[in-house]
Protein backbone atom coordinates (compact mmCIF):
# COMPACT_ATOMS: atom_id res chain seq x y z
CA UNK A 1 0.00 0.00 0.00
CA UNK A 2 2.70 2.50 1.00
CA UNK A 3 4.69 1.73 -2.17
CA UNK A 4 1.57 2.38 -4.24
CA UNK A 5 1.09 5.76 -2.57
CA UNK A 6 4.75 6.59 -3.26
CA UNK A 7 4.21 5.58 -6.89
CA UNK A 8 1.23 7.94 -7.11
CA UNK A 9 3.28 10.77 -5.59
CA UNK A 10 6.10 10.11 -8.05
CA UNK A 11 3.54 10.26 -10.86
CA UNK A 12 2.24 13.59 -9.53
CA UNK A 13 5.77 15.01 -9.48
CA UNK A 14 6.34 13.81 -13.04
CA UNK A 15 3.09 15.26 -14.34
CA UNK A 16 3.82 18.60 -12.67
CA UNK A 17 7.35 18.80 -14.02
CA UNK A 18 6.37 17.60 -17.46
CA UNK A 19 3.67 20.28 -17.64
CA UNK A 20 6.18 23.08 -17.10
CA UNK A 21 8.61 21.66 -19.67
CA UNK A 22 5.78 21.36 -22.20
CA UNK A 23 4.80 24.95 -21.41
CA UNK A 24 8.38 25.99 -22.26
CA UNK A 25 8.00 24.32 -25.63
CA UNK A 26 4.61 25.91 -26.24
CA UNK A 27 6.10 29.36 -25.61
CA UNK A 28 8.34 28.90 -28.66
CA UNK A 29 6.06 27.29 -31.24
CA UNK A 30 2.40 27.49 -32.17
CA UNK A 31 -0.01 24.64 -32.90
CA UNK A 32 1.35 21.27 -33.95
CA UNK A 33 4.75 22.82 -34.63
CA UNK A 34 5.37 22.39 -30.91
CA UNK A 35 5.87 18.68 -31.58
CA UNK A 36 9.22 19.56 -33.17
CA UNK A 37 10.53 21.35 -30.09
CA UNK A 38 13.14 19.36 -28.08
CA UNK A 39 11.58 20.65 -24.85
CA UNK A 40 8.27 19.09 -25.87
CA UNK A 41 9.93 15.71 -26.35
CA UNK A 42 11.55 16.02 -22.91
CA UNK A 43 8.27 17.03 -21.28
CA UNK A 44 6.42 14.19 -22.97
CA UNK A 45 9.08 11.70 -21.85
CA UNK A 46 8.70 12.88 -18.25
CA UNK A 47 4.94 12.54 -18.56
CA UNK A 48 5.28 8.98 -19.89
CA UNK A 49 7.38 8.00 -16.88
CA UNK A 50 4.75 9.59 -14.64
CA UNK A 51 2.07 7.60 -16.48
CA UNK A 52 3.97 4.36 -15.75
CA UNK A 53 4.08 5.21 -12.04
CA UNK A 54 0.36 5.96 -12.10
CA UNK A 55 -0.33 2.51 -13.58
CA UNK A 56 1.45 0.95 -10.60
CA UNK A 57 -0.65 3.02 -8.20
CA UNK A 58 -3.90 2.23 -10.02
CA UNK A 59 -3.16 -1.48 -9.75
CA UNK A 60 -3.58 -1.43 -5.98
CA UNK A 61 -5.31 1.79 -4.91
CA UNK A 62 -8.88 3.06 -5.40
CA UNK A 63 -9.32 5.39 -8.36
CA UNK A 64 -10.35 8.38 -6.22
CA UNK A 65 -7.24 8.06 -4.06
CA UNK A 66 -4.85 7.92 -7.00
CA UNK A 67 -6.46 10.82 -8.85
CA UNK A 68 -6.50 13.05 -5.78
CA UNK A 69 -2.81 12.36 -5.16
CA UNK A 70 -2.11 13.13 -8.82
CA UNK A 71 -3.82 16.49 -8.36
CA UNK A 72 -0.88 17.49 -6.15
CA UNK A 73 1.05 17.84 -9.41
CA UNK A 74 -0.21 21.41 -9.39
CA UNK A 75 2.02 22.15 -6.39
CA UNK A 76 5.03 20.98 -8.40
CA UNK A 77 3.86 23.05 -11.36
CA UNK A 78 3.47 26.15 -9.20
CA UNK A 79 6.94 25.84 -7.70
CA UNK A 80 8.63 25.19 -11.06
CA UNK A 81 6.56 27.93 -12.68
CA UNK A 82 8.06 30.31 -10.11
CA UNK A 83 11.59 29.21 -10.96
CA UNK A 84 11.26 28.91 -14.74
CA UNK A 85 8.84 31.72 -15.61
CA UNK A 86 9.18 33.98 -12.56
CA UNK A 87 5.50 33.78 -11.58
CA UNK A 88 4.90 35.44 -8.20
CA UNK A 89 4.17 33.15 -5.27
CA UNK A 90 1.72 34.78 -2.87
CA UNK A 91 1.36 34.01 0.83
CA UNK A 92 -1.97 32.35 0.14
CA UNK A 93 -0.26 30.12 -2.43
CA UNK A 94 2.12 28.86 0.24
CA UNK A 95 -0.78 28.07 2.56
CA UNK A 96 -2.60 26.34 -0.30
CA UNK A 97 0.44 24.17 -0.98
CA UNK A 98 0.55 23.20 2.70
CA UNK A 99 -3.19 22.46 2.60
CA UNK A 100 -2.71 20.10 -0.33
CA UNK A 101 0.09 18.33 1.53
CA UNK A 102 -2.07 17.87 4.63
CA UNK A 103 -5.07 16.74 2.59
CA UNK A 104 -2.97 14.10 0.85
CA UNK A 105 -1.72 12.81 4.20
CA UNK A 106 -5.30 12.38 5.40
CA UNK A 107 -6.26 10.76 2.12
CA UNK A 108 -3.39 8.29 2.45
CA UNK A 109 -4.64 7.30 5.91
CA UNK A 110 -8.23 6.91 4.69
CA UNK A 111 -7.33 4.80 1.66
CA UNK A 112 -9.14 1.51 1.41
CA UNK A 113 -8.63 -1.35 -1.01
CA UNK A 114 -9.74 -1.76 -4.58
CA UNK A 115 -13.04 -3.45 -5.14
CA UNK A 116 -12.87 -6.95 -6.63
CA UNK A 117 -16.22 -6.46 -8.38
CA UNK A 118 -15.90 -7.22 -12.10
CA UNK A 119 -15.95 -4.25 -14.46
CA UNK A 120 -19.29 -4.03 -16.33
CA UNK A 121 -19.13 -5.33 -19.89
CA UNK A 122 -20.41 -2.01 -21.27
CA UNK A 123 -17.64 0.00 -19.63
CA UNK A 124 -15.06 -0.57 -22.38
CA UNK A 125 -17.51 0.53 -25.08
CA UNK A 126 -18.33 3.64 -23.05
CA UNK A 127 -14.62 4.49 -22.82
CA UNK A 128 -14.18 3.97 -26.58
CA UNK A 129 -17.13 6.31 -27.21
CA UNK A 130 -15.57 8.88 -24.87
CA UNK A 131 -12.22 8.63 -26.71
CA UNK A 132 -13.85 9.08 -30.12
CA UNK A 133 -15.94 11.98 -28.83
CA UNK A 134 -12.89 13.75 -27.41
CA UNK A 135 -10.97 13.15 -30.63
CA UNK A 136 -13.77 14.75 -32.65
CA UNK A 137 -13.98 17.68 -30.22
CA UNK A 138 -10.22 18.20 -30.40
CA UNK A 139 -10.23 18.26 -34.21
CA UNK A 140 -13.14 20.70 -34.31
CA UNK A 141 -11.82 23.10 -31.66
CA UNK A 142 -8.04 22.89 -31.96
CA UNK A 143 -7.51 26.05 -34.04
CA UNK A 144 -9.95 28.40 -32.34
CA UNK A 145 -10.83 27.09 -28.88
CA UNK A 146 -9.82 28.99 -25.77
CA UNK A 147 -7.26 27.75 -23.26
CA UNK A 148 -10.10 26.80 -20.93
CA UNK A 149 -11.74 24.54 -23.51
CA UNK A 150 -8.45 22.86 -24.38
CA UNK A 151 -7.61 22.35 -20.69
CA UNK A 152 -11.06 20.82 -20.13
CA UNK A 153 -10.52 18.43 -23.05
CA UNK A 154 -7.11 17.53 -21.60
CA UNK A 155 -8.68 16.87 -18.22
CA UNK A 156 -11.37 14.64 -19.71
CA UNK A 157 -8.70 12.72 -21.63
CA UNK A 158 -6.69 12.31 -18.43
CA UNK A 159 -9.82 11.09 -16.69
CA UNK A 160 -10.44 8.56 -19.47
CA UNK A 161 -6.84 7.36 -19.19
CA UNK A 162 -7.21 6.77 -15.45
CA UNK A 163 -10.58 5.03 -15.74
CA UNK A 164 -9.35 2.69 -18.47
CA UNK A 165 -6.17 1.85 -16.53
CA UNK A 166 -8.16 1.12 -13.36
CA UNK A 167 -10.77 -0.99 -15.19
CA UNK A 168 -8.12 -3.03 -17.03
CA UNK A 169 -6.42 -4.18 -13.82
CA UNK A 170 -7.52 -7.34 -12.09
CA UNK A 171 -4.95 -9.97 -12.97
CA UNK A 172 -1.27 -10.06 -13.80
CA UNK A 173 0.55 -7.35 -15.74
CA UNK A 174 0.37 -9.59 -18.80
CA UNK A 175 -3.40 -9.73 -18.42
CA UNK A 176 -3.42 -5.94 -18.18
CA UNK A 177 -1.57 -5.41 -21.46
CA UNK A 178 -3.77 -7.98 -23.20
CA UNK A 179 -6.93 -6.13 -22.17
CA UNK A 180 -8.37 -3.93 -24.96
CA UNK A 181 -9.38 -1.27 -22.44
CA UNK A 182 -5.74 -0.85 -21.44
CA UNK A 183 -4.78 0.11 -24.98
CA UNK A 184 -7.33 2.90 -24.98
CA UNK A 185 -5.05 4.63 -22.47
CA UNK A 186 -2.60 5.31 -25.31
CA UNK A 187 -5.17 7.31 -27.24
CA UNK A 188 -6.26 9.20 -24.13
CA UNK A 189 -2.62 9.96 -23.25
CA UNK A 190 -1.91 11.42 -26.72
CA UNK A 191 -5.06 13.55 -26.66
CA UNK A 192 -4.32 14.80 -23.17
CA UNK A 193 -0.80 15.84 -24.13
CA UNK A 194 -1.79 17.59 -27.37
CA UNK A 195 -4.70 19.53 -25.87
CA UNK A 196 -2.71 20.50 -22.77
CA UNK A 197 0.06 21.94 -24.93
CA UNK A 198 -2.55 23.97 -26.82
CA UNK A 199 -4.03 25.16 -23.52
CA UNK A 200 -0.71 26.48 -22.19
CA UNK A 201 0.05 28.02 -25.57
CA UNK A 202 -3.09 30.17 -25.32
CA UNK A 203 -3.07 30.59 -21.53
CA UNK A 204 -0.86 29.99 -18.49
CA UNK A 205 0.29 26.67 -17.16
CA UNK A 206 -1.10 27.04 -13.61
CA UNK A 207 -4.80 27.55 -14.44
CA UNK A 208 -4.58 24.91 -17.18
CA UNK A 209 -3.07 22.36 -14.80
CA UNK A 210 -5.70 23.22 -12.17
CA UNK A 211 -8.62 22.64 -14.54
CA UNK A 212 -7.09 19.36 -15.69
CA UNK A 213 -6.65 18.28 -12.06
CA UNK A 214 -10.21 19.07 -11.01
CA UNK A 215 -11.63 17.22 -14.03
CA UNK A 216 -9.41 14.17 -13.57
CA UNK A 217 -10.33 13.91 -9.89
CA UNK A 218 -14.10 14.43 -9.97
CA UNK A 219 -15.09 12.29 -12.97
CA UNK A 220 -12.92 9.22 -12.21
CA UNK A 221 -13.73 9.57 -8.51
CA UNK A 222 -17.46 9.30 -9.18
CA UNK A 223 -16.96 6.43 -11.62
CA UNK A 224 -14.66 4.64 -9.18
CA UNK A 225 -17.25 4.77 -6.40
CA UNK A 226 -20.47 4.22 -8.34
CA UNK A 227 -19.36 1.95 -11.20
CA UNK A 228 -16.19 0.19 -10.04
CA UNK A 229 -17.29 0.11 -6.36
CA UNK A 230 -14.04 1.40 -4.87
CA UNK A 231 -14.20 2.45 -1.24
CA UNK A 232 -12.33 3.91 1.72
CA UNK A 233 -11.40 2.61 5.15
CA UNK A 234 -14.36 2.08 7.46
CA UNK A 235 -14.96 5.17 9.56
CA UNK A 236 -12.83 7.42 7.35
CA UNK A 237 -15.49 8.37 4.82
CA UNK A 238 -15.99 11.96 6.03
CA UNK A 239 -12.23 12.51 6.36
CA UNK A 240 -11.75 11.28 2.79
CA UNK A 241 -14.43 13.59 1.39
CA UNK A 242 -12.98 16.52 3.34
CA UNK A 243 -9.47 15.76 2.06
CA UNK A 244 -10.65 15.71 -1.55
CA UNK A 245 -12.56 18.98 -1.04
CA UNK A 246 -9.56 20.71 0.55
CA UNK A 247 -7.25 19.48 -2.19
CA UNK A 248 -9.52 20.78 -4.94
CA UNK A 249 -10.10 24.11 -3.18
CA UNK A 250 -6.36 24.60 -2.69
CA UNK A 251 -5.80 23.76 -6.35
CA UNK A 252 -8.26 26.48 -7.31
CA UNK A 253 -6.39 29.00 -5.15
CA UNK A 254 -3.08 28.06 -6.75
CA UNK A 255 -4.58 28.46 -10.21
CA UNK A 256 -5.56 32.09 -9.58
CA UNK A 257 -2.10 33.52 -8.99
CA UNK A 258 -1.17 36.34 -11.40
CA UNK A 259 1.23 35.87 -14.32
CA UNK A 260 4.78 37.05 -13.95
CA UNK A 261 6.14 40.25 -15.41
CA UNK A 262 8.81 38.10 -17.06
CA UNK A 263 6.12 36.39 -19.06
CA UNK A 264 4.70 39.67 -20.22
CA UNK A 265 8.15 40.69 -21.39
CA UNK A 266 8.63 37.45 -23.30
CA UNK A 267 5.31 37.98 -25.03
CA UNK A 268 6.41 41.37 -26.32
CA UNK A 269 9.60 39.91 -27.79
CA UNK A 270 8.02 36.81 -29.29
CA UNK A 271 7.46 36.58 -33.06
CA UNK A 272 4.12 37.95 -34.18
CA UNK A 273 3.08 34.60 -35.61
CA UNK A 274 3.42 32.85 -32.26
CA UNK A 275 0.66 33.18 -29.69
CA UNK A 276 2.01 32.60 -26.21
CA UNK A 277 1.49 33.66 -22.64
CA UNK A 278 4.67 32.16 -21.31
TrEMBL record:
The chain crosses the membrane at residues 39-61, 95-115, 121-142, 149-169, 181-199, 211-229, 235-254. Keywords: Membrane, Transmembrane, Transmembrane helix. The keyword Transmembrane helix applies. This is Uncharacterized protein.
